[in-house]
Structure prediction request, 887 residues.
Amino acid sequence: MGGVCKMGQKYKSGGKLVENSAVYWLCCMGCLSLSALLAPPTEATEEVSLDSPEREPILSDGPSPAITPVTPTALIAPRAEPNVIMVSGMFEQSLDELEEEAAGDSFDIQISVSDPEKVGDGMNAYMAYKVTTKTSLTVFSRNDFSVKRRFSDFLGLHSKLASKYMHIGYIVPPAPEKSIVGMTKVKVGKEDLSSTEFVEKRRSALERYLMRTVKHPVLLQDPDVLQFLESSELPRAVSTQALSGAGILRMVNRAADAVNRMTIKMNEADVWFEEKQQQFENLDQQLRKLHGSVEALVCHRKELSVNTASFARSAAMLGNSEDHTALSRALSQLAEVEEKIDQLHQEQAYADFYLFSELLGDYVRLITAVKAVFENRMKTWSKWQDAQLMLQKKREAESKLQFTNKPDKLQQAKDEIKEWEAKVQQGERDFEQISKTIRKEVGRFEKQRVNDFKVAIIKYLESLVQTQQQVWRESDWAAL
Amino acid sequence: MMQEGLDDGPDFLSEEDRGPRAVNVDLQTDATLQVDISDALSERDKVKFTVHTKSTLPSFKQNEFSVVRQHEEFIWLHDSFVENDDYAGYIIPPAPPRPDFDASREKLQKLGEGEGSMTKEEFTKMKQELEAEYLAIFKKTVAMHEVFLCRVAAHPVLRKDLNFHVFLEYNQDLSVRGKNKKEKLEDFFKNVVKSADGVLVAGVKDVDDFFEHEKTFLLEYHNRVKDASAKSDKMIRSHKSCADDVNRIASTLYTLGTQDSTDLCRFFLKVSELFEKTRKIEARVAADEDLKLADLLKYYLRESQAAKDLLYRRGRALVDYENANKALDKARAKNKDVLQAETSQQLCCQKFEKISESAKQELIDFKTRRVAAFRKNLVELAELELKHAKGNLQLLQSCLGVLKGDT
Prediction:
């Protein structure tokens, strides 16, 4: 909400207003700089800014070249800045409205990941995937477009989103996991069944990841996401490499987090959070178990189909040697045919269960993200508490100084107190904000989960019905 | 039914509990001699079979009587047939395999040890499954022993064997002890010698076309049956492990369902129920396959081995005959011990011809039996699979209907 333009002047009431679905633009006729509003401006366009005058303009990268884009300074900055928190706080409020509007918009966006292509040779080779977006949302410039991306691009997108949104309570969908073994096989060029399976698994995982990300109304509006989907060239995300400096930093951070987790004891005032956390713990446990069992089943079904195939061959041979009686031979052939059908049946069941197991795997990872968000809330709380303690200390220091006669030190102390009071207030606000966000996110997550599982289960059962019908038909024929 | 702790105390398996038995042979129900196993007891490490005979033959003291026999006594009977030269020309019905409950017992023990780590429902479920498995193995071994006896009883010559009558009638312990180490070693060496000899004998080209053809056929058939039997075993094992997995999934879904507070809980519970039922059906399918297909193949594996043995004996007799001929010629040439050589040649000739004659008939019978058995079992298997597929389909459709209706 630009209160002031580049030149330091307030946006005049005569400023041009450009509507762009959920984002409104205000243009300063004087310097032609832009400010974006996420809510329609009020009547008095003079006083459009909110409480604090130091709001910095936040924007999405303007797709239209006619307007000079103002770079979003605040948003990309790392978390510790109090500035950002303020910005995102304000961002928050208008995002609520944004979400409502997005819900009003027909949610029409389809992303597909296809055509995996091997680019390059040897150990530097990688798979490039085509990402095609079909949409009628106005936030995009075209209706149907595609770009080429590689796996590390996806990881880069995820890490950017995570650093922007996780600490304020949004559940960012996790990216598919790296797999050194799988990729090495592909790089080396082994054109066998397991590497094609691996590529297929990865392709579908990437597709699901993107769909989940854009289903989130806040993430959909994020400039990084839009850039990822639209722009033909993307800067290489180097920090996703396992052994890079950034990778090591990540590991250190993770270790620090683990220690923190154990030391922060939070006074949970809100029963809702406690319940939910417990629920998610249980869910996590059960889903992991289920995932394990489903994977085992997939494995065994594969085995079964292999064994059935080999049995069918053996039965055929047996039938061949039995040419004493034509009847005998017919019977053996029959046995063989039936086995072949059985094998098909198994393969299909396996393919569908594989979908189910992938879904479960996704959810296990998602729940990890949810747990991380809960932890962030705890961290915010602890920061708030720390700020309170500091304030306390400063107040004590000040009262001590009252009795000594050092006016400038006293002033300094008073200033510090003011500073810390502000921080405490901010901490409290942050905590409440993150709590609110989490509540909403969890609600959304649950809805998604319910939907996803229902759809998956129904699909799986339907496919089972189909295969059973086939088996029935074949057995019928066999019995004749 | 089964009591707690299968390892202690006798368990009863009453007549009613036995389902359809895998009868792999086509038997003429002859009123003059009917044998069956009416009851069986499973004790710690042995199984006691109650052999029940109904007969109108005068050689038996009563018309209907029962005795209790153990596995070793069956083996004794079988071996006595094999060692009897008079029966060299017949396919000796293959001996039933030893009852093997070790695997089951091990699993039960492991289950008992792991009791602490599972929930109560899981434990009871697994226990039930293990008991069902034990029961299935039990039924199978009973069936195989019975088939052996029935084959002997149906054979026109073997049924008159004295040892057989003793086996059926003598209601005290036959005090047949299992072979001790020394005897087992002897057996092993005998087998080695026999197989070496078998190779030699097989090399001799037979004059008779019929037998030559049979020889090649049986060899090939035997190998293929062995292969098919092994593969079918593997297949059935995979099937069983799939069913086990579905079981575990069902119980996890159930826990998920009870924990979940959203709409999904009903879903999960229903699906868990569904999986339970489909698992039972899948397990049944696997068991049927096992019974109809795997057992069939295994039995014919053993029978074809017995047929091969017959051919071997005949081949041996042929070689002996030819050797006797050569000896006779030599004796005649030297004009020494001619009479002796002549008598031995006569004996060999007789033996050979006797074997050849009966062997021909036996092999033809074998073929008829085999064809009939395969036909019967495969048809039954197809029908059962049909039934199960239908059942499965119904379950799935009804569950789907309920779930869809709720969304």
